[in-house]
Amino acid sequence: MKKLAQEFKEFIMRGNVLDMAVGVIIATAFGAITTALINNILMPFIAWIFGAQDMSALNVTLRPEVLDESGEVVQEALVLGFGTFLGAIINFLLVALVVFAIVKAFNKAREAAESLKKKEEPEEEAPAEPAPTAEELLTEIRDLLKEKQ
Prior knowledge:
Elements: H1 2-13, H2 15-50, E1 60-63, E2 66-67, E3 73-75, E4 78-80, H3 82-120, H4 134-148
Antiparallel strand pairs: 1-4, 2-3
């Protein structure tokens, strides 16, 4: 059991898992922001454009609800929720746009960092030929003297 607990601890402490956890937390917070933006700013504006009080006015009722004598609902209404669907589409497009902008900015920053790193790294020069030894120099001098004679 201790070995299993140790393995689990090592798994949790790895960088990828921690990065993923931070990403999920930030995504949840970002989801709340986009939902508030959609529900409180964009959807009322779209409803105003269509001349409706709210987006539920864009829904189509296929079957109205059935009430009994006491006013309790016996059968729920059957409604096509176009307003809700439109809100989900706008929410998706907004989130996709933000994710695209983040990925684009990340890629641009990574390219800039790589180009900066390439500028800082000295270019590797071709290995210089090793200096001739004294014996090689003397042999070369001897050969040149022989040629002159």
